[in-house]
Amino acid sequence: DKTISEISDEMGFSHVRYFNKHFKRYYKCTPMQFRKKYKADGGKYEGLKKVKELDIKEAADAVSPYLEDYDRYKFKDKIIKVDFDMSSECGKLEKKFLEVIDIGNAKELLNEENKNILRCISDNIEFNYGIIHGLFTEDMNVFQSKNNGFISWTRVRQVLQFLFEINLKPIILLDKSFESFKEPLNILREFMLYFNETFEKSDFIKLRFKLDDGLSQCLKDGIAEITDEFFDESPLVDYNFDLNICENKIYDTCYMIPYIIQNSINNPENNLCFKAFDGLNDTMKNDNDVHVGDSGLISLDKIKKPSYYAYNFLSLLGSEIIAKGEGYIITKNGEDIQILLYSYKEDIDRLTTFEEIQKERGIKNTAERKYSINIFNLLGDYRIIKYELNEKNGSFYNHWLSMGKPERLTDEERELIKKASVPKISFGFAKKSTVLNIISKIEGYGGTLIILKNVRKHLN
Question: What is the reported pTM?
Answer without folding.
Answer: 0.80
